[in-house]
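Good morning C.,

I know you're traveling, so I'll keep this short. The sequence:
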Amino acid sequence: MAHARKSSENRKVPRRGTSQRETLVPIVSLTSGALVAFVVLATSVKEGATMALDVALLTQIHSLSPAWLETPMVAVTTLGSNSVLAVVLAIAAYFFYRAGSKLEALFLPVCALGSMVLATTLKNLDRRTRPHLFAFRITMVSARTRFRAATRR
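The tokens, ready to paste straight into the viewer:
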């Protein structure tokens, strides 16, 4: 019995936590790799090397999608506009604040604003035109146009 106790005391106990270096190395490696991949892809897009792929994918998707799907997809796209996102973010931040998560209530709009600024900056740096291959069968009418049409009757 004493022999068994002695051998178990000599074994190394595995560490429970990891050091900062063990944590940072994979994070920095993945981030660096993603940044390099992004720069390579952005350079290819800017030079027009991906246009043939874009056209092929858009043509294939367009050929497979039914006509009735166009209207709901335009509606879904509209949900991603800055004005809709601002309203949703304001509501979410309000609920975070009411729930006592004041840091999250502040963090959410700060991250969203940073994301919008970053996306706009990257789009302006690229200045790539979208391939307009198809005539859309629907038109988006703004609320202002509807209001003017209704008041002219």
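Safe travels,
E.
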